[in-house]
Amino acid sequence: MAERLKAVRELTYPDARSLKMVREAGGLSKLTAEQREKVRLVRVNPGAWCDNMPEESKEAFIKKGAVVIVDAKPAPKGRARGSK
Amino acid sequence: MAKYGPASILFLVDGYNMLANKVQTLTHKVVALITKSDGLGDTWEEHSPIGVSMAELAQEGAFFDTTALRSHAAFSASVPSSPQASVRIACCGFSGNTAGEAFFGFEGDFTEEYEVVASRGDLQKANTVHRITGQRDEGKIIQALATKTADWNTESAPIDNAASTANGGVGYQQVTAFSGFTGFIGKIRDSPDDITYSDLITFTDVTAAPAAERATVAGTVDRYLAFDGDVTGAGSITVFCGFSRS
């Protein structure tokens, strides 16, 4: 069973390359102006997948309902939705 | 202890920046209603709070000004004339128009009195008394009243509450000037870790000024709060936003 994360609210977070710098600084607000220019943010609309969100953020966002865990198991082949 | 002078005042009603009228006095008062509670046998008068509070707001000495967006436009048509009159959205602050400073927002505001005063040897003045209906919200300024010309957010300087809160809150947005753009969506965003932000409150699309909105949210409000402004087209906008945690 493949579990995936889906955004319920619009989210933004640093992409994988920027995350290391943000973590080392201690947060987005701790970055210098020069570092801030280098940070690339991922913007996720409600309903879109957000599996790549930072590990440290996942629990809090799931707990408050801004992100949900979805069973992304694909439908069986050859059987149309609603067929018997 | 910090002290503040007249430059630290903030007073916005339905998207009108009342300071443009050179207000001379702004008074805000909270009153706890008290009942007399002594009875037979008592030798001293006693009083007890009844658990109901009221807020008052009044300004005096502003110029009577018929320029667009000034005092006459702000108040002349807003003294309620029917039971169906809409409440107004008012915000004021006494400690500076700066992100992180305190502000007061009011759930509902009726302009109970609008008084124009003419006197010999002086310019005409306008006084107003506001009757507050519902609660007063005390919170922090997230976006200080400022003019912007492109998309922006304050996630590089969020308001840090040191911890999340669990009981929702109230957001206020006031737009005092708007030109050129075809739309503006303001959002309050929150974050538990200063790394990932999500939308907490999305205000209604603004297409003209003056405009004001009060919006509530339930549940968890994360530790960090920031404002996000998303404009459509080219132009300029002057906007204020504050949030009160419940």
What's this entry about, in short?
The complex is a heterodimer of chains A (84) and B (246). Chain A contains three helices and four strands; from the N terminus they run E-E-H-H-E-H-E.
Describe the 3D structure.
The complex is a heterodimer of chains A (about 80) and B (about 250). In chain A, about 30% of the residues lie in helices and about 20% in strands. Chain A has 3 helices and 4 strands; from the N terminus they run ββααβαβ. In chain A, the strands form 2 sheets. Chain A has a two-stranded antiparallel ribbon. A two-stranded antiparallel ribbon of chain A has the order 2-3. In chain A, about 25% of the residues are buried. In chain B, about 0% of the residues lie in helices and about 55% in strands. In chain B, the strands form 2 sheets. In chain B, strands 1, 2, 3, 4, 5, 6, 7, 8, 11, 14 and 16 form an 11-stranded antiparallel beta sheet that branches. In chain B, strands 9, 10, 12, 13 and 15 form a 5-stranded antiparallel beta sheet that branches. In chain B, a hairpin with a 2-residue loop joins strand 1 (about 10-15) and strand 2. The longest helix of chain B has 5 residues, at about 70-75. Chain B is globular. The mean pLDDT of chain B is about 95. Classes of the chains: A alpha+beta (about 80), B mainly beta (about 250).
